[in-house]
Amino acid sequence: MTDTAIEAAGLGKTFGRRRKRALHECAFRLPAGSVCALIGPNGAGKSTLLALAAGLLRPTEGTVTVLGTTPAAARERVAYVAQDKPLHRQLTIADTLRMGRDLNPGRWDAAVAERLVTDGGLDPAAKVRTLSGGQRTRVALALALGKRPELLLLDEPMADLDPLARHELMGALMADAAEHGTTVVMSSHVIAELEGSCDHLLLVGGGRVRLAGPVDDLLAAHALVTGPDGDLAPHTVVESRVTGRQLTALVRPAGPIGAGLRSGEPSLEELVLAHLRSPDAPALTLTDERREAAA
Amino acid sequence: MSTVSAEATTAGATTAEAPSTPFRGLVRTVLRLHRSALWFWVLFLAVAAGALLWAYGPGSDAAWQEYRTAGCAQGGLSPGCNTRVPAYQWFFTVTDTASELLYSVPLLTAAWAGSALIGREIENGTTAVVWTQSVSPARWLAAKLAVPAALLVAGTAVLSLLHRTVWSADRELWDSMGLEWHEGSIYTANGTLLTAYTLLGLAVGVLAGLIVRSALPALAGAAIGFAVLLNVIDSLRTHLWPVETLTREDGYPDYIGMVVGDGALTSTGARVSDPICVDDAACLARHDVVGFYRDYHPSSHFWPLQLMETGIVLAVAAVAVAAAFALLRRRTA
Fold first, then answer.
1. At CB < 8 Å, which residues of chain B contact A?
2. Is the pLDDT of residue B80 over 90?
3. How far does the CA of residue B32 sit from the closest CA of chain A (Å)?
């Protein structure tokens, strides 16, 4: 049993003849059992990263290791839900779950899958083509959870759901993950959607990893600084804005914050937005070795 | 990391002990996904087999009966009687339609394989669903080829056998229609070629689906690709076995069997194109024409020709299948 769910080294993927670059030089490590938010603007490479980890794409450079092996060899232990929640339209819900049973011999947990479907008030005899976007999400999640994965990769899982269903489904997902120690990676460009349920953050932008690590450690490594305009050296400045003579900046402190400046820990949203607004800010990757050593 | 493939194999072997093996699960899934195609194939088989069985039994009996009543059956069938016997017309229509239906199977297979079997699944993104179950893309492709192939081979073999039975039982009726053993659709349906071309259609369709990755363009691509291959191989057909030659001095030899070529012969035995002198002796003498030849395949060449062509068709199909797997391997992990 490995304690690393996903490890990427120099991972890159280019598409098509024009060598359009979706990911480049990605390196990060995600410990097993974590719930990771994969955040980034549209077109940042989130979907590509998840598809690489799911073994659906072959990297053009570097490697990605999943559950201690290649994505192809980890296939049985990984579940994946694509962004547009593809399902076979000609099948009924029951047929779709039967397919899950047939294609995951020895792994399939019919009770989990069926409960998720019936909790949504869905008729198992309904054809997939008659379902709404949110209902399809539910069936896709049922198919993914029924597999009893060790790693669950979800690409924008909650996008089609109304707030109530989102809350309920996210709760079910998190409870299931906590019960079985499943590692979950969820992509989104809505930070609020993930705040509170995720303990890890992976921020990608422009095909690169911008921030990676435990949420608490990342927040602790940054300071939101306000005060009169002045020199912020020797701190690493992620983003700074000056309104009149008033300075607001997100920095990575390299020592005590200078006198005359007020400093506080940023919220996750502030941290993410500051990095998204400043694509040139240096990347930061924190590993939770400290935490592992304690455990 | 070097034992990846070995790990995958052993994983497959251990789960095989589970109540449902991955192989059986995949077969069930392919059948479930393509249920309507399966029903279409069953219906098609029923209609085509029904038509052939009718032609073999009541159809030909009625035709012969009417022939005898009309007095056409004395000393061989006289072609002039054809139009006056409705039962014969029925026999002709049904058998001809059945031959053409059978002949359409490979092309239909190519179009279906390109669109519904592969193209639609890639276009809708449902490959991502199947490939992230405990099934590798290569196994998925193998199942998508093997399950339809088994059903198509079984079906076309039965239809070919039936077609051949009708053909051999009532050769005189067919002959009187001017339909010979080498006629395109009859030639294909009477031997192993129908099955071979159907497999080629499947392979070409699957490859087109993987290349084009969307249903409708793959349908067109598969149909065009298959039609091109069919025509190329068809144009080779007469060259697949040594021909027999007939010669005659006072005109062309009989036009029999699958004719490959003909022309004039000079006194040295050289083959020249016919100067079209007709009966003009001086003209013939001037061109040194002393006779005429005709290259052809007699009906005894049916099996050698069929088997040679079957081999070529299956080889091309194998190449298409190998290309499909290579393409899939390059794209997915």
1. 1, 4, 7-8, 11, 15, 18-22, 24-26, 28-29, 32-33, 35-36, 121, 124-136, 330-333
2. no
3. 8
